[in-house]
Design a protein that fits this description.
Strand order of the largest sheet: 1-2-3-4-5-6-7
Oligomer: single chain
Strand content: 15-25%
Bound molecules: zinc ion
Radius of gyration: 21 Å
Number of strands: 13
Shape: globular
Structural class: alpha/beta
Largest sheet: 7 strands, mixed
Distance between the termini: 64 Å
Order of helices and strands: HHEEEEHEHEHHEEEEEHEEHHH
């Protein structure tokens, strides 16, 4: 823009009421990638929820079988879920039979309403509903404050609960679901696509973005260790690239979580307190993770409370 145009624009702007001035915030592009035959992933951006990203910050997607489609986390908001549904319809007209929810965090599940008219089975961990009862309203209000009530959407209560293991049949394609003991949260599901040996991990695995602890640090390390035995050769993390090699991609998260456990135990052993822990623990990892400062302190606080009772 040249100087004259800028002046004209400024004059024009000065004559208009402020609320008309706000240009619509451009929404980030919605880009799917097919990481294995029939497995489509939208990698989330490494940000907190904003109007521009519509809370599209988690990795979400879908898996297509011969007879039906399974949504793999319906998205972070109604707007995010509607874009995911539109993407499915660009690839297939098959019925959307399942909406699998890997855990209750809003960036993974608030797009559920976009699929209500499809009448799918909403699938979640047996403990998911209890956590939604505790936190659902808070999540809904927080997201509505940010995006507006229509765009924010809502979660769906699961109507198929997984307490240990379950198999979903998409027609010629089986998804094996496992309900984990408390790890990232107390309601984490992992899903193995047997046809391609791909493990969909939700937030059991963070890559690049610093892990966020909302369950048990020892449990998370134990569940990650157990998942290493999976026959899968690749995985879809909850945050990070659309596809990573498995189990190699677990190493960085294990190093980060394991370092926190080791350092907190040392502080507790010499009689130190939680403030000392928050000031020092994990900082060696600071340059290795995105959004580190937003989560490390919380992770250390949560881990300290768990480990001081050992
Ligand atoms: Zn999460």
């Amino acid at each position: 823009m040249n100087r004259r145009d800028a002046l004209l624009l400024a004059t024009f702007a000065a004559l208009r009421p402020a609320r008309l001035l706000a240009a619509p915030v451009p929404v980030l592009p919605f880009v799917m990638t097919e990481v294995a035959p029939g497995i489509h992933v939208r990698p989330g951006v490494h940000e907190e929820a904003t109007v521009a990203n519509q809370d599209g910050i988690a990795n979400i997607g879908f898996i297509i079988g011969d007879a039906a489609v399974a949504v793999m986390d319906p998205g972070g908001s109604r707007a995010d879920g509607e874009r995911l549904r539109a993407s499915i319809r660009q690839h297939t007209g098959l019925p959307i039979r399942y909406v699998v929810m890997t855990h209750m965090h809003p960036d993974h599940v608030f797009g559920a309403g976009a699929f209500a008219a499809d009448g799918p089975v909403f699938v979640g961990h047996a403990r998911m509903e209890g956590m939604l009862v505790q936190r659902g309203e808070f999540y809904r209000n927080s997201l509505a404050d940010l995006l507006g009530i229509e765009e924010a959407g809502d979660y769906a209560k699961p109507n198929l609960f997984v307490a240990d293991d379950a198999t979903l049949d998409l027609g010629g394609r089986s998804l094996r679901l496992h309900a984990h003991a408390t790890a990232h949260t107390d309601n984490d599901l992992s899903i193995l696509d047997e046809a391609t040996g791909t493990l969909w991990l939700g937030d059991l695995l963070f890559v690049d973005r610093v892990p966020a602890l909302d369950g048990s640090i020892l449990g998370w390390l134990a569940q990650t260790g157990a998942l290493r035995a999976s026959p899968a050769k690749r995985a879809v993390p909850g945050h990070g690239p659309a596809l990573v090699p498995w189990p190699e991609a677990a190493a960085a998260q294990e190093r980060y979580l394991g370092g926190i456990v080791r350092d907190i135990r040392a502080i507790i052993a010499r009689g130190g307190d939680i403030e000392q822990a928050v000031e020092t623990v994990g900082l060696a990892e600071r340059d290795r993770w995105l959004l580190f400062d937003d989560y490390n302190g919380r992770n250390v606080t949560s881990a300290f409370k768990e480990l001081e009772w050992e």
